[in-house]
Design goal:
Number of helices of chain B: 2
Helix content of chain B: 10-25%
Radius of gyration of chain A: 35 Å
Radius of gyration of chain B: 22 Å
Structural class of chain B: mainly beta
Strand content of chain A: under 5%
Structural class of chain A: mainly alpha
CATH topology of the largest domain in chain A: Regulator of G-protein Signalling 4, domain 2
CATH architecture of the largest domain in chain A: Orthogonal Bundle
Number of domains of chain A: 3
CATH superfamily of the largest domain in chain A: Regulator of G-protein Signalling 4, domain 2
Order of helices and strands of chain A: HEEHHEEHHHHHHHHHHHHHHHHHH
Largest interface: A-B, 104 and 137 residues
Number of helices of chain A: 21
Distance between the termini of chain B: 41 Å
Oligomer: heterodimer
Largest sheet of chain B: 4 strands, antiparallel
């Protein structure tokens, strides 16, 4: 027997949790002390009690959650769309209007979560009631569904009609105000559980995630291992985040903007052109970034090239070459591993090799042993040794070198693009060669670029 | 507190089986106790070194000013819910996939569609751009991850060159190329992650440990580049060693499915987004959760998260159609962005941090800057 957390009748845990949270909001809204002010609302000639205006709802949400009007409107609209609040005027239109339009709380009886799932039978009875009450009250799509249901559950049709008649009879005995309220409540429920065609189905939650496996070993092993690990004090770790964000702040286009301009905002691709992989003169920010960490330097093609030049001057370029070759092994095709490992051995590790790299004897022995049965990670230890050698030794000296300092001095600081005097004149958006091509020109793209305002983007 | 579930075969009529069952129950109870004890000890150890909160450390940091981000491009063309997207390294192209099986490559800057493929399955929940820009990978309800080389020959049928790489026993939830076009990392509804060799389709390593569907993964931007994090329906976020297949760290503080995980740019932490409507930050060196990003008015789940380039901002795409922007250090919500007309299902910041892209169930993608 499997113990399973199966939510009631098929509602997934995610759905239940959202419904519960919305219901909490509802309860808070109806709190006698802190809840909403409600009033009687005149609907044509009938007075409906316990109603509130759209404006009231939004104001309450703003005060309760300390949010702005737009967010309150959005949140309130979710409550309407999921059927917790329904409109009295234009009941088929489930939107929240930020004005004097009247709304009411849905009774828990008609909450989607209470009656999940909505049944075919109940829907048939509802449509039958509408049909009987006033001929022609059924809208086109309702008529279609009604006749479909009639075919599908034909065997219980007598029951459907009987129930419909009974419910209608019972409702006639209610006060007019109550009758109208009940009709509105029921209609709102069905608008959500059986939405009209073309209206978003709020109850579409995507694919189910039914899988739950039983495993016990991993948890214990992982916990045991975790107990043994070294941890760093929070104060040290967290300080690291502050420092990192500070260091990179000027480099963060979303936070600080970028020069000359953000291409997405100005339609000018100068920023990308200036920061292409290889340029005659790099930007200052880019060269500065090389000093942030060794990884930054190596990840930038130009940075790596500069560093290689420096190493050549120091006669230690074989280190970087070795590291690059090891990267090729680690990330390259499986079929080429043996061949590449052989090459690396020949060029860098074998005694008397042309570009011999200086690795400690322990690592060298381990690597040579591993090469006998080459695999993707056989060079890892040696590669890391050389990486940290460069990082601790050559890299800091490179940053102090004239080569780097000159690069930094030469580097360009782009001018901010002046904003266009005529804000409605949009620049032509030029296409760029696709990385997927192998030499073919992008000529056919230009015809569409720039003139393509109908492609769907809007300002 | 999660409990380990065991499937027992019910046949108490045979006495030997009955004894076996009692023994099994005892072992199970013993293991459960051991597991609980270990977890409590682990939490105690973690708490010992927690001497300050992130927002306290961040008190001295300047507050962020007013935030203005708008939709700069809207990409229309999918006929159904957009489920996933990824950026090309060229900082302007993207690939997106949708419920109706279509995978589209766009130049997001011009909004032109450059390639389109129809997959043989629906619900293409995962797609990724190859680092070279010459191929895309995708998969979903077909339980596979396939690689399509991108050709500029308009007459060529992309589907003809398709290469099946990964094979799971349940839906593919996420995929990512590693540092090259040659390896792909996948996560699946079958509860596992796997590393594959693209050329041969060979399974290089598999990762077992999640107790339910794995929904997301992200590769670590570290110097040694050997780890990745995954999140799943078991509410756990696991950090894995790609070489050994071992789970080296595990975090379980979310109250519901984890839909998205993303590393902080330095690689020392990662953020997660969950159906419990919160985003959380986990520090790998401190080995604990260090921040929760939540607000009482945010009720619906987070489908996807990503950091701005400096890691100061965390963007979250939510199931209530909005995007919330969080100050990672101070823990406050900086801004809320409206625009999509249905769930935001996917969100990624561009490689150079100039913009982020969202995909939605409203069939569109938007670029925000």
């Amino acid at each position: 027997m499997t113990i399973n957390t199966l939510a009631k009748g098929g509602l997934q845990p995610e759905q239940m949790s959202c419904f519960r949270k919305m219901e909490k909001v509802l309860v808070a809204m109806q709190d006698p002390d802190m809840g909403m002010k409600m009033r009687n609302q005149r609907l044509l000639i009938t007075v409906i009690p316990h109603a509130m205006t759209g404006h009231d709802i939004i104001t309450w949400l703003i005060q309760k959650y300390h949010i702005c009007e737009e967010e309150a409107l959005h949140l309130g609209e979710m409550l309407v769309k999921y059927g917790y609040i329904y409109p009295l005027k234009e009941p088929r239109c489930l939107v929240l209007r930020p004005d004097e339009s009247p709304y009411r709380f849905q009774t828990p009886y008609f909450w989607t979560s209470t009656r999940w799932p909505a049944s075919e039978l109940d829907y048939a009875i509802y449509l039958a009631k509408k049909n009987i009450r006033k001929q022609g009250e059924l809208v086109e799509y309702e008529k279609e569904r009604y006749s479909l249901l009639h075919k599908r559950i034909n065997h219980t049709w007598d029951f459907v009609v009987m129930q419909a008649r009974e419910q209608l009879r019972a409702s006639k005995q209610r006060r007019k105000a109550d009758r109208i309220v009940l009709e509105c409540q029921e209609q709102a429920y069905w608008l959500i559980n059986r939405p009209p065609p073309g209206v978003q189905n709020m109850l579409d939650w995507g694919l189910e995630r039914p899988n739950n496996f039983s495993t016990r070993v991993p948890l214990i092993e992982t916990s045991r291992r975790a107990l043994g690990r070294n941890r760093v004090k929070s104060s040290i770790c967290l300080e690291g985040f502050v420092k990192y964000s500070e260091q990179y702040q000027n480099h963060d286009p979303i936070m600080q903007g970028c020069l000359p301009s953000n291409p997405w905002i100005s339609d000018d691709i100068a920023y990308w052109t200036m920061n292409s992989e290889i340029v005659p003169v790099p930007t200052r920010l880019r060269v500065e970034r090389w000093s942030f960490s060794f990884m930054e330097l190596l990840s930038d093609a130009m940075g790596r090239r500069e560093f290689m030049t420096y190493l050549e001057k120091e006669f230690s370029a074989e280190n970087l070459h070795f590291w690059q070759e090891c990267e090729e092994i680690r990330h390259g095709e499986s079929s080429k591993i043996i061949e590449k490992v052989e090459d690396v051995y020949k060029n860098f590790l074998a005694p008397g090799a042309a570009r011999w790299v200086n690795i400690d004897s322990k690592t060298m022995d381990k690597t040579l042993e591993g090469i006998k049965r080459p695999h993707r990670f056989v060079m890892d230890d040696a590669q890391m040794h050389i990486y940290f050698l460069m990082k601790k030794d050559s890299y800091p000296r490179y940053l102090k070198s004239d080569l780097y300092k000159n690069m930094l001095a030469k580097a360009v600081v782009p001018q901010e693009t002046k904003k266009s005097v005529f804000p409605f004149m949009r620049r032509q958006r030029h296409s760029s060669p696709s990385p997927a091509q192998a030499g073919a020109p992008a000529a056919e793209e230009d015809g569409r670029a720039g003139t393509n305002s109908a492609a769907g983007s809007h300002f | 507190v999660p409990v380990q579930y065991i499937v027992l075969k019910r046949s108490p009529l045979i006495p030997e089986m009955a004894t076996q069952e009692v023994q099994l129950n005892e072992t199970l109870a013993h293991l459960k106790t051991e597991s609980e004890t270990l977890k409590t000890k682990l939490e105690e150890e973690r708490a010992k070194l927690h001497d300050v909160e992130l927002h306290q450390v961040a008190e001295k940091v300047e507050a962020l000013g007013q935030f203005v981000m708008k939709t700069r491009r809207t990409l229309k063309g999918h006929g159904n819910k957009v489920l996933c997207m990824d950026w090309c390294k060229d900082k302007r192209r993207i690939v997106s996939s949708s419920q109706d099986g279509k995978v589209i490559v766009w130049d997001a800057f011009t909004t032109n569609k450059e390639h389109a493929v129809t997959m043989p399955c629906t619900w293409v929940m995962a797609c990724a751009y190859a680092p070279s820009g010459c191929a895309v990978a995708c998969g979903g309800l077909d339980n596979k991850c396939s690689v399509y080389p991108l050709s500029l020959d308009k007459n060529e049928n992309l589907a003809a060159k398709k290469k099946s790489v990964a094979m799971h026993t349940n839906y593919l939830s996420a995929c990512s190329f590693t540092n090259s076009d040659m390896q792909i990392l996948t996560s699946s509804g079958d509860g596992t992650c796997a590393l594959w060799d693209v050329e041969s389709g060979q399974l290089l390593q598999s990762f077992h440990g999640h107790a339910a569907d794995v929904l997301c993964l992200d590769l670590a931007p570290s110097e040694t580049g050997n780890t990745f994090v995954s999140g799943g329906c078991d509410k756990k976020a696991n950090v894995w060693d790609m070489r050994s297949g071992q789970c080296i760290q595990s975090f379980e503080t979310h109250e519901s499915d984890i839909n998205s995980v993303r590393y902080y740019p330095s690689g020392d932490a990662f953020a997660s987004g969950s159906d419990d409507a919160t985003c959380r930050l986990y520090d790998l060196r401190a080995d604990r959760e260090v921040a929760i990003y939540s607000k009482e008015s945010i009720i619906f789940g987070v489908s996807s998260v990503d950091f701005s380039l400096s890691g100061r901002l965390l963007f979250g795409g939510y199931n209530d159609y909005t995007i919330n922007v969080w100050d990672v250090l101070k823990g406050t919500r900086v801004s809320i962005l409206f625009g999509h007309e249905n769930r935001v299902s996917t969100l990624r910041v561009s490689p150079d941090g100039t913009a982020f892209c969202t995909g939605s169930w409203d069939h569109t993608l938007r670029i925000w800057a």
